[in-house]
Amino acid sequence: MGSAKLDGQVQSEWRWLIAAYLFLAGVGGGAYMAGVIADLTGGAEWMLVSKIGVFLGVPCVLIGTFFLLADLGTPTHAWRVWMKPGTSWIARGTIIIVIFMILAAIHTAFWIWPFAGPLEANESARHFIGVFGSIFAFLTVIYTGLLLGYSQPIALWRTALLPVLFFVSAVSTGLMAIMIIAQSMGVAVAQLDVMENIDAVILIFELFVLIVYLYNAYRTLESRPSAQRILRGPVASYFWLGVVMCGLAIPLILELLGRHGAILTIGALLGLFGGLCLRFTILVGGIFTPITASGFVFARVHRPKDPMPAMGKLPPC
Amino acid sequence: MARYGMVIDLNRCYGCYACAMACKVANRTPPGVFWARVLRGEMGTFPNSVRQALPVLCNQCEEPDCMKVCPTGATYKTDDGIVRVDKDKCIGCAYCVMGCPYGARYKVDDWNSYFPEGLPLSPYEEHTKEFWEQKSGLGVSTKCDFCIDRRAEGKEPACVQACSAKARVFGDLDDPDSEISYLIKTKRGFVLRPEVGTEPKVYYLPPR
Fold first, then answer.
1. Any idea which of A198-207, A284-293, A297-306 has the lowest mean pLDDT?
2. Do A294 and B206 touch (CB under 8 A)?
3. Could you report the predicted ipTM of this complex, rounded to two decimals?
4. Distances (CA, A) of B194 to B10, B63, B204
5. How confident is the model at residue A135 (pLDDT cuts 50, 70, 90)?
6. A42, A148, A247, B66 - which has most CB atoms within 10 Å?
7. pTM of the prediction?
């Protein structure tokens, strides 16, 4: 390999719009799954929490898909996205999110006025839809990790840990979204406590997955430039301030303190912001593996200007 | 049917960028878009180091990753093995940009001026933009097609014709008597990133 650094070109096509979609799909899918679990395992007192989670599913994912459309070069052709589901994760993914939104909308209808009368009492049908919808919520959350992992040249994404990381982050951000709304709707303190404790455990697990993910990225020669870019490169401010401080450390400390009111809301909002930063960090941390041949590592000499500014200078989003 | 490929002799290439410029002229690519480009590599530590140029372009793979990830089927392979993008089917999702192991894909949102910001397009640029919109389209993914228009006129691809070192040879890989088949067989021709399994059709001859 010689002394040449493995220094490739930075991925610059997928940025805030895609990060916003990944984040919103995560919140929607995670909140839906949490809502269904609350319905299946909790008693009548968990009904409101369950409703909040299920109700969050469709709007979050739907808003997310608008971000996806906005990122397309020719949004008017977007319907073509279903033409080749055989090998493309974008095609498969859009099918998954459409099925999820349909199921979640049916589930939501159980509690909405014209349908609520005959359906609300039918608990087994609701549970059935819930389990079925949760499967697609799960797929909605993890398929994006598989989609990124299918990219040959970007070694940072090419790992089985990415879907795991997205899943854990989705559940924790989904729970945070539920907690914010649940508190404002006057859910009992005991239930908020339970949710806070569960979320704290998930956050600790997320921290663990994130450490393993970045350690792995650093240990792999191809993805080391990406790991360096995230840990101490131009993306580091988003990572340390956004993901680690806002997304993990502060919410975890506030949840372990077990306070309610404004403190809970602030912690959860920061956690949601951290979830968005996590997606953005992983997207813009992507670096194309340089080509090697005959013992040379080939880098682009006149590479386009790195769209990320130097560390410490956050650009207007 | 022919199966077109290219051989690039790294022993001959001295990195003059004529291929990159000829491609720009022939295909009217906007700023920042290089269907043909030249990479630079270095081996060893100074003073015992060697530098080498590597001209790259779309490898027209037999098993293209960009075609696998394309959700709409806009990426397709012609009968003679050229990978092309149907601009009317492409939605501009940029998944192929992420999927191509050779960095040969460019999503072009707008044909911006080569001149400093704020200036309107010059008349020449207007013409160039029009050509680009008709052939490659805006808001879609674009890539090298081995100069399909020039080949229709019986010419070689622009990068091959422009190569001042005669390092590039274009031809039919299926024809065992063609010059490129001979070069690949006798001069240890290799492809870039064979581990990816895309079976590229652009071959390289070793630098020395």
1. A297-306
2. yes
3. 0.88
4. 17, 12, 12
5. very high
6. A247
7. 0.90
Closest C-alpha among B63, B203, B130 to residue A293: B203
Considering only CA atoms, which of A137, A271, A110 is closest in space to residue A206? A271
Q: Which amino acid is at A186?
A: G
Q: Phi and psi dihedrals of A144, rounded to 5?
A: -65, -35
- What does the alpha-carbon distance between residue A67 and residue A61 come to, in Å, rounded to a whole number? 10
- Map out the domains of chain B with their CATH numbers: 4-205 (3.30.70.20)
Name the 3-class secondary structure at B168.
Answer: strand
pLDDT in tens, A18-31: 999 999 999 999 99
Number of Cα atoms under 13 Å in the Cβ half of residue B17: 8
Q: Are A255 and A203 contacting, i.e. CB atoms less than 8 angstroms apart?
A: yes
**Where does residue A15 rank: exposed (0-12), middle (13-18), buried (19+ CB within 10 A)?**
middle
* DSSP classification of residue B106: E
Name the nearest CA neighbour of A297 among B140, B193, B111: B193
Pair of tokens at residue A85: 């589901």
Give the C-alpha separation, A241 to B179, whole Å: 58
Q: Count residue pairs from A and B with Cβ separation < 8 A.
A: 151
Question: What are the structural domains, with CATH classification, of chain A?
Answer: 16-298 (1.20.1630.10)
What sign does the CA torsion over A66, A71, A75, A81 have?
negative
**Short-list B76, B83, B78, B75, CA closest to B59:** B83
Most A-contacting residue of B11, B96, B98, B133 (CB-CB within 10 A), to test interface: B98
